[in-house]
Amino acid sequence: MQKDFLWGGATAANQVEGGYLEGGKGLTSVDLIPHGADRPAIMQGLMHYGEVAEGAYYPSHEAIDFYGNYKEDIALFAEMGYKAYRFSIAWSRVFPTGFEDEPNEAGLKFYEDVIDELLKHNIEPIVTINHFDVPKTLIDELGSWKSREMIDLYVKYATALFNRFNGKVKYWISFNEINMLFHLPFMGAGIYFEEGENKTEIEYQAAHHELVASAKATAVLKELDPDAQMGCMVAAGDYYAYSADPKDARKAQQDNQENFFFIDVQSRGEYPRWVTNMLDREGIDIGITEEDKQVLKDNTVDYISFSYYSTRVSKAELEEGEEMTGNAFVGVKNPYLEQSEWGWAIDPIGFRTTMNSLWDRYQKPLFVVENGLGTSDKLEDDGTVHDDYRISYLRDHIEQLKLAVEEDGIPVLGYTSWGCIDLVSASTGEMSKRYGYIYVDRDDQGNGSLKRYKKDSFHWYQKVIETNGENLAVDNFK
Ligand code: BGP
């Protein structure tokens, strides 16, 4: 791997920070998604909690208290040797309702402190501007990204960040997993559906607003700091055809095209024709102006960042009960692959395949900003956690990453594994679905000391970074 390869870890504000009303922060979409039976329907925008409900448990409200603990946590990242740390900024910490003219100083100051702490340890901050997080007031007043007004509000927010962190942050990501809008509209974009609304129309309308907002923010960034880089971010993972039946192959192609849609626009600067044709055919007008087209064309991204957890399988004709979901993507089970405890397929070779697909399509540097295994761990009495299964998973994936770089010649900027410290699961709201190198003592009901413990994988990853990916042996730390 190249000398300056950015090894590190990744988190998101709502999954680690807590302090949900501290420092003047406003309520945000995720603060309204409780743990429990209603969570899936709420994330999909099919049910809506307009207010924080009495008696419900909201994991984002306290999370793992990174808000109060960031110095100690960053010190642990530094001890592992991180070169980069990807985190997100909570929009409602900086603009509590989204409508204020001026940013909230306490919010900006918190992130400035985080960034300064990282820089002190020579860790490159990778900042996601928006990760599953829309201020509640914008949802209530505008219907979130359904409204075109969101574009200017987002650009105002992003501009406040670019101004404040100019020269300190080089890598920006405009939206986390922007394609999640099609799978979990409320989680991804603060959108819920009213009776009688056309789902396809709403989703493409919102997508268009996000795409224009991303492009406009990119223009501002380049103006303020020509050296900074803007990346798009997609929940990646190729769709395989279930069989050699042409119908399955065609279905896989369509599923892949849909998954690439946002990145096609952000990287190539224009809508793919299958989308404009489909919208015309369906009689859907999402209000794309000539000016929008120009903005999209002129402000494409510098790099393609992505999350990778698994590939997916497309089948044209589904049989009853055959459907399965992994990371919100629906498909069928791959008979060749094992699954995680939470039912997500494990496919290291698919990681390399996916990187090749992205590179062949866009020819822009890639950045792996999420990858990891969510599973339960056991904290031993002596404070150790023997997570050899996580080490194997990461080893198998990093091996494929190296092949993509060294054999296939794909430029990859870095690898920040997901949930480098245990955090709240986005899909389930659980703490017991753990991804971290660092164990956090907290359970699914919010009990626990929040104390941090180093897992075996902590020491393993430390060695991986120290040897720049050369020593991947599962016992390299012993
Ligand atoms: C991605 C999200 C993350 C993260 C991860 C793991 O979709 O960008 O926020 O949570 O998936 O998913 P989960 O937490 O549901 O296990």
Annotation field: number of helices: 15
Helix share, percent = 25-40%
Mean pLDDT: 96
Q: What proportion strand?
A: 5-15%
Largest sheet, in brief, is:
8 strands, parallel, barrel
The unreliable regions are none
- Output the strand order for the largest sheet: 1-2-3-4-5-7-13-14
Provide the structure class: alpha/beta
The coarse overall form would be globular
Calculate the terminal CA-CA distance, rounded to whole Å: 24 Å
Radius of gyration (Å):
21 Å
Give a list of the ligands. 6-O-phosphono-beta-D-galactopyranose
The number of E-state strands comes to 16
Key structural traits:
globular; binds 6-O-phosphono-beta-D-galactopyranose; single chain; 16 strands; 39% helix; eight-stranded parallel β-barrel; 14% strand; two-stranded parallel sheet; alpha/beta; 478 residues
Write structural notes for this entry.
The protein has 478 residues and is an alpha/beta fold. The protein has 15 helices and 16 strands. The strands form five sheets. An eight-stranded parallel beta barrel has the order 1-2-3-4-5-7-13-14, surrounded by four helices. It has a two-stranded parallel ribbon with strand order 6-8. β13, α14 and β14 form a beta-alpha-beta unit. α3 (66-80) runs parallel beside α5, α7 (149-164) packs parallel to α9 (199-224) and α9 (199-224) packs across α12. The longest helix is centred in the middle third of the chain and has 26 residues, at 199-224. The radius of gyration is 21 Å and the shape is globular. The protein starts with 5 loop residues before the first strand and ends in a 12-residue tail after the last helix. The mean pLDDT is 96. Residues 12, 15, 176-177, 235, 307, 327, 370, 374, 418, 425-427, 433 line the site of 6-O-phosphono-beta-D-galactopyranose.
